[in-house]
Amino acid sequence: MLSLGVRELASLAEVSPDTVARLERGAVLKASTVERIQTALEAQGVIFLSVGDRAQGPGLSLDPSARSKGSDS
Is residue 70, in this structure, part of any structural domain at all? Predict the structure, then answer.
């Protein structure tokens, strides 16, 4: 969607590329670090929805309970 690479997102969020890569792998990061990354993504037009929120237009969402355990797709 945004075509942002790890290095570019890291630069926008003022964190290291390794930090972005750790987030992508599912590592737990400090709340302040996640906030920096979220703020950088929001500045690029990403809208984060809370549970129960509705998108203002077309979009998609993943229901985590519908995903099979061990599935890679």
Answer: no
61 domain residue, yes or no = no
Domain count, the chain: 1
Could you report the per-residue pLDDT of 18-69, keeping only the tens digit for each?
A: 999 999 999 999 999 999 999 999 999 888 888 778 777 777 777 777 765 5
AA letter at 44: Q
> Could you write out the three-class secondary structure of the chain?
CCCCCHHHHHHHHCCCHHHHHHHHCCCCCCHHHHHHHHHHHHHCCCCCCCCCCCCCCCCCCCCHHHCCCCCCC
Q: pTM for this one?
A: 0.73
Axis-axis angle for helices 17-24, 6-13 (nearest 10): 110
| Domain with 24 in it | 1-49
